[in-house]
Amino acid sequence: MEDKKIILQKINSKCADNLEVAYQYYKIIGVINNIKITHRQLQLLAFLAVKGNVRYSTFREEFSTTYSSSSATINNMIGELVELGLLVREKRRKIKVHPAINLDFTKEINLFLRFTKNA
User: Which of 1, 38, 106, 107 sits in a 20 to 30 Å window from 12, CA-based?
Assistant: First the structure.
């Protein structure tokens, strides 16, 4: 019989702001779930989680200015992120981060990951 041991590894990461915390969180979620997501899509996802609704022109302007993106690029990324299930469309064309992965990034976040083998 195999001796089952648990390996515990603690990793602390310090981020500059809520936007960076969100970016790192979604990056981990993408890697763990084998979701192919680009750097710019991660930026949009994090920005949306921290800043709010993409429908407002101020959001689009701020993202476009910060990340040198066009409105067409934002629209394309939104469509791709909706297809991946990371964003959801609500009433009145409101786009939001999927509730299962939408956290309050103003608070400290602790992740617990469990990797198991198929037996």
Answer: 38
Q: Tens of pLDDT along 18-27? A: 999 999 999 9
Q: Class of 18-101 per CATH?
A: mainly alpha
Nearest of 30, 59, 45 to residue 102 by alpha carbon: 45
Q: Cα separations (Å) of 71 from 40, 57, 105?
A: 13, 10, 25
pTM for the full predicted model: 0.85
Q: How many residues does the chain have?
A: 119
**Count of other CB atoms within 10 angstroms of residue 32:** 11
Coil, strand or helix at 55: coil
**What letter would DSSP give residue 101?**
G
Q: Is 52 left (phi over 0), alpha (psi -120 to 50) or beta?
A: left
Encode pLDDT of 44-100 as tens digits: 999 999 987 766 678 888 899 999 999 899 989 999 999 999 999 887 778 899 999
